[in-house]
Amino acid sequence: MLLQTSASVVIALLMSLVGIAFVLWQTRRVLAEDPGNELMRKIALAIQEGASAFLQREYRIIGIFVAIVATIIAMYLQVQTAVCFVVGACASAGAGYLGMYVAVRANVRTAAAASRGLHQGLRVAFGSGAIMGMSVVSFSLIGMTVLFLIFNGDPNQLTYITGFGFGASSIALFARVGGGIYTKAADVGADLVGKVEKGIPEDDPRNPAVIADNVGDNVGDVAGMGADLFESYSGSIIAAATLGAALGNDSVAFVGLPFLVAAVGVVASLFGIYMVIGEEQEVTQAETFNSNGLLIRAHHFLSKYVAKIDEKASLEDLLLALRRSVWGASVLILGLSLFAVLLSGVHFNYWLVILVGLIAGNAIAYATEYFTSYTEKPTQAIGKATETGAATTIIQGLAVGMMSTVFPVLITAFAILFSIWLGFKADGTIAAGLYAVALAGVGMLSTLGVTLATDAYGPVADNAGGIAEMSGLPHEVRNRTDALDSLGNTTAATGKGFAIGSAVLTALALLAAYVTAAKITSLDMLGPTMLPGILIGAMMPYLFSALTMMAVGKAAHEIVLEVRRQFNVIPGLMEGTAEPDYKTCVGISTESALREMILPGSLAVVVPIVVGHVLGKEALAGLLVGTMSSGFLLAVMMANAGGAWDNAKKWIETGEYGGKGSDAHKAAVVGDTVGDPFKDTSGPSLNILIKLMTIVSLVFATSFGSGWLSF
Amino acid sequence: MLLQTSASVVIALLMSLVGIAFVLWQTRRVLAEDPGNELMRKIALAIQEGASAFLQREYRIIGIFVAIVATIIAMYLQVQTAVCFVVGACASAGAGYLGMYVAVRANVRTAAAASRGLHQGLRVAFGSGAIMGMSVVSFSLIGMTVLFLIFNGDPNQLTYITGFGFGASSIALFARVGGGIYTKAADVGADLVGKVEKGIPEDDPRNPAVIADNVGDNVGDVAGMGADLFESYSGSIIAAATLGAALGNDSVAFVGLPFLVAAVGVVASLFGIYMVIGEEQEVTQAETFNSNGLLIRAHHFLSKYVAKIDEKASLEDLLLALRRSVWGASVLILGLSLFAVLLSGVHFNYWLVILVGLIAGNAIAYATEYFTSYTEKPTQAIGKATETGAATTIIQGLAVGMMSTVFPVLITAFAILFSIWLGFKADGTIAAGLYAVALAGVGMLSTLGVTLATDAYGPVADNAGGIAEMSGLPHEVRNRTDALDSLGNTTAATGKGFAIGSAVLTALALLAAYVTAAKITSLDMLGPTMLPGILIGAMMPYLFSALTMMAVGKAAHEIVLEVRRQFNVIPGLMEGTAEPDYKTCVGISTESALREMILPGSLAVVVPIVVGHVLGKEALAGLLVGTMSSGFLLAVMMANAGGAWDNAKKWIETGEYGGKGSDAHKAAVVGDTVGDPFKDTSGPSLNILIKLMTIVSLVFATSFGSGWLSF
Question: Cβ A550–B392 below 8 Å, yes or no?
């Protein structure tokens, strides 16, 4: 090998510092934007306060949770693992906090920028998303690399760093599940009274739950999604490094490679982000601080790739601009990671593995888009089904959601198969093949900085629309924010496909790491406890989804009662002469979301530990496989059915089947409402379930025996 | 061992002859009942003709399919297997034909008997169900035992008899999938135009699709359910015998035991059936042909156990009568099978295994009832959710369906675990444990004669209600048939739980037989092709359900167009002065159901063969495990959500939340309509998918190698 592990890790550390520098610079840039007029600022402030109140309370609960779990880990396992656990939790929470902090300030600035033009609005909103994306990548990378260097770069001490992944998973659990319940409780609650009972439009400032609804977009889709992918990103690198360390001779190169690929991904993601938010006038700015002209020429060269978006840009144009940024980053990663593979001295096949991961990620995103976009047949079939009422709309939507699982599963299955095959051909062992699967996961997630930017941009645009509506900005501004919002809905759907696909690869890699760590020699599927384990595992996603869906129902019901109460007791509220009490609704959403996440959250942590002890470590592996396979399917089905219902409604709103207010539209609204907890609460929460159960097993791997029922 | 295999098989053969004698006697008895007045007979004739037309066309398609597959088996495997395949298909088709033949004649006789009293109606309907139940058991048993004896009782030739199971599975595929599509297409189509557009009640003779709807109840719930359980019953016995044959020393006893347990089940089922349809006046009849008084005394003794049902019997009373019959049969089996175990000379633990199977079957049925009965909280929660509209009704129903998977999965997982443990403790090998799992499946299904009777009775009662309505029988008759129909709905839900639970145990046993037959030595879950296999397997139930749900949608749409057309072109139809053209609707349902079942049906046969060849025999085992676990969950979720929605609607119709016609009721109707394809098409079809894929793999086991991608 040409490059030592430590050198690779140091390169990754340096790149994470570059990422953090970008985050800080970009944060200043977004905050320097015009925050709009007084009314806009006032609305934005309410959202900021609501988001901050939620995060503070959430982080207090998480703090208690982290303290308890860290103590248990320190007592039963190692202190080092406990420290890594705390660091992982803090890094993820920090990235989430920063992303939210900017998002709830970028929303109003996006609305103000949209007054000037479509591209200006896109730049601010996407710039905010880029902060989330790059924070996740950089915070994860700096945390892991520093810990790794503290442990002297000793691959044998990698086991401590699994604690980092567990910490990240814990934050993801609370952020995704709690955030998911919050956002849909507020959304459904606001709609049920506002739109249905009172007949006032969405985002109407008279609705007491409107601020909670806007806060929800941020806590669910910015902080929740960020924490979810922070977990996948960290988990895939940890799994690859752990599996690499067990590969014998070349282990030093194998451990370093995932860090190198991640480092390469930081550079590529920055380039991808630049392709959207780069501005031509900056070329002259660059001249001022660079005398030799190299940077100027580089900037001139790069600026050719910046997306050109004019006022007449269609949804397709906007989508293409974002897609180009992800593709551009992917191509750059392919080129740079070839160097990484060559410098590491590992077999060329591992470069093909990274290619497999990148292609798989993009292919899943594309398949997701096909099934959820209203320009395509599946969603149009749901639109057609609205003609015969709500029941056929639901049946068709569920059928589309189920059908949409086929490609993501086939893509993932073949990505796993080819990765194992490539690894096996390179180094002759199945262990090398499993390392390759983990590396494919790292490859898939290497573009995360920019893919997450395209995703976390959505809620900012959504909020901007709400603020434009509430503050009565001119019609053309609302049109622009609507265009940006539609774009956000599409990227949200593809982002969910990417999140679940990467969750499966990460979980699989972590499972392989668990099997290694638990010293399991044979995982015979017909072993005595294996099939019970698989069945119970397959049941977990159903139980988890049932709990989260019921939680949304309960929490939404509380919001409905409060909104009704306010309309009854506050005179002049309906007439717009009095102001609603937004804070109470924010408080109720916060309380109920945090309360309702406890049970499903605890199950995800407790069940693997109980099964590992009672049925033994082999059954636990079976449990994880069951949860992974069944959860993958259910998550894709729920996310895509939800996305397709949402877009079928939007399609009808463009005038199909009678347009807004028709019977078809009413049926479509039923579909959309059913889809809300599907796509924003239960579906995405399953990503966490899959990964968290696996990483809990990995962390506690050494404590499991052959179970109480000895055969 | 005290009893040779051949002796056990001969006993089973004799008992199957007793069962067939009962079937013939009981058929004559039912057909001798009063067939009602002329109008009733006319309506019943239309249903008979429709059912017969469907079956004839279905059997023609099946005939072609069976001929092709038999040829392939004869060419690539053995001629003996092909013969067994044809025999299995004919036995299942024969049982289905007989069951349907009686059911479509018992419906009108039930309506006529209900004019005389509630118990009279129950007796005729249940008597018809008993014919279906006992035909399934007897035809399966006679087929297998005769084939086994032809092969000289040589356990090594048991592999041919797997063909019998494949033949049964093929019929089940067409009967369940085709029948399921038929019944819901007709039901939804009739309702969408009749109830929704024209505002005429259910079962109104003016509706051109009303006959098709009534035919559908029979082809779906009598022939479909019967073929489904015929497959489970045959499969579990074949799997147990095959696994027993591989157990070495005691193999002769192990092979014979499942046949003995089945034989014991025939006797016990007959007793259970007697507990419902026995009549006191027969005691005197018995005296005439028995001089020594033994039979008289026996009859006097037994008649104490016959259910007493008076006119004021509540749903609980009726339910108890049916439950007592299943419990009575179960207790009898426990006693008799203890003799069977002792006579076979196998370890006492195997008797406990049979106990585990019986308890598991009853426990799953009980759990199903809890989640789908409107006297319990889960269904009432759906009722409450109707207050806030269709969307919350759907969300709550799906959540209940998901939650309802917990107990069936835990019960099945522990039944598997304890069976393996008991077998392992008895004979010291995991192979003995897997044999025990198969035996538990045989134990669970040993009561099939009577459990299927409680199930196949439902559509007869449902039809009777339709005939009473259409022929204008007095109000009290309709009340009685309604009571019998409600009872049928509850037993249908528990029957579905039983069907899926037994399908999983059977499939698991067949999987173990496959692994043995394919000479797979290690089924390492982290093997190169295993996880891709599991993921693709887990996807199959989703693809299958999507196809069947869309099929119902398409077929229902064709019915809707035809019913609308008839109302437009036939003058006087709405006024009741002209008659609709029932036959065209029957023809459309038949055509579309048979057309739409081809694709999902082919997938179930083709995918295992393709995966077995391309990815190899280990990946195929992974595929089967994936399909089994994911399909189990999805099937239970769909069946129970559908049942709960149905009953939530019925609960509201008793006057809750505003009763019939209220907004809550409208929301409940949406839930019920979504639930229709869930519980009657897609959900039950998954049982077939799980078993068929496994038995196809077993039959072709020897033809699979290590796959094209060699590692």
Answer: no
Nearest to B535 among A389, A409, A421 (CB): A409
Whole-angstrom distance, CA of residue A98 vs CA of residue A93 = 9
Torsion sign, CA atoms A433, A434, A439, A442: positive
Condensed to tens digits (0 to 9), the pLDDT of residues A628-656 reads 999 999 999 999 999 999 989 989 988 88
Query: Residues 548 to 607 of B: which have CB under 8 A from any A CB?
Result: 549-550, 552-553, 557, 560
Secondary element (H or E) of residue B63: helix B38-76
Give the residue from A607, A611, A630 with the most B CB atoms within 10 Å of its CB, the best one to mutate.
A630
Name every chain B residue with its beta carbon within 8 A of the beta carbon of A402: 542-543, 545-546, 549
Choose the weakest-confidence range: A117-126, B411-420, B490-499: B490-499
DSSP bridge partners of A232: none
The Cα–Cα gap between B65 and B59 comes to 9
Closest CA to A512 of A265, A263, A247, A689: A247
Beta bridge partners, A524, equal B524
Question: Which residue in chain B is spatially nearest to A404 when comparing CA positions?
Answer: B543
d(CA B495, CA B453): 10
Write the residue in B402, B524, B538 that is nearest to A545 by C-beta. Answer: B402
| Secondary structure (3-state) at B661 | coil
Residue A443: closest CA among A526, A329, A613? A329
Which chain A residue has the Cα nearest residue B516? Answer: A526
Q: Which alpha helices (DSSP H) does A570-616 contain, by range?
A: 582-596, 598-614
Write down the residue that tokens 């799953």 correspond to: B364
CA distance A339 to A77: 39
Helix (H) or strand (E) run with residue B347 in it: none
Closest approach of chain B CAs to the CA of A124, in angstroms?
36
* Partner B contacted by A621 (CB < 8 A): yes
Closest CA to B462 of B493, B484, B477, B479: B484
Q: Which residues pair with B524 in a beta bridge?
A: A524
Per-residue pLDDT tens digits for A492-508: 878 888 888 888 888 98
- What's the DSSP call for residue A304? T
Give the chain B residue whose CA is nearest to the CA of A513: B526
List Cβ neighbours of B242 (8 Å cut-off, separation of 6 or more): B158, B159, B162, B513, B516, B517
Structure tokens at B454: 């409680």
For residue A595, give every residue at least 6 positions away whose Cβ sits within 8 Å of its Cβ, in sequence order, or none. Answer: none
Among B137, B140, B143, smallest CA distance to B268 is for B137
Helix, strand, coil in percent for chain A, rounding step 5:
85, 0, 15
Q: For residue range B392-412, what is the model confidence (pLDDT) as tens digits?
A: 999 999 999 999 999 999 999
Answer whether A545 touches B (CB < 8 Å).
Answer: yes
Respond yes or no on whether ipTM tops 0.90.
Answer: yes
pLDDT at position A310, please? 73
Query: What's the start-to-end Cα distance of chain B, in Å?
Result: 46
> How far, CA to CA in Å, does B198 sit from each of A593, B18, B191, B194, B472?
45, 51, 9, 5, 20
Report CB contact under 8 Å: A392, B553.
yes
User: What are the two backbone dihedrals, phi and then psi, of residue A636, each rounded to the nearest 5 degrees?
Assistant: -65, -45
| Cβ pair B337, B261 in contact under 8 A | yes
Which chain B residue's Cα is nearest to A191? B388
> Model confidence at A597, in pLDDT bands (50, 70, 90)?
confident
Distance (Å, whole) CA A628 – CA B65: 36
- CB atoms near residue A451 (< 10 Å): 31
Instruction: Write the Ramachandran bin of A657: left for phi over 0, alpha for psi from -120 to 50, otherwise beta.
Output: left
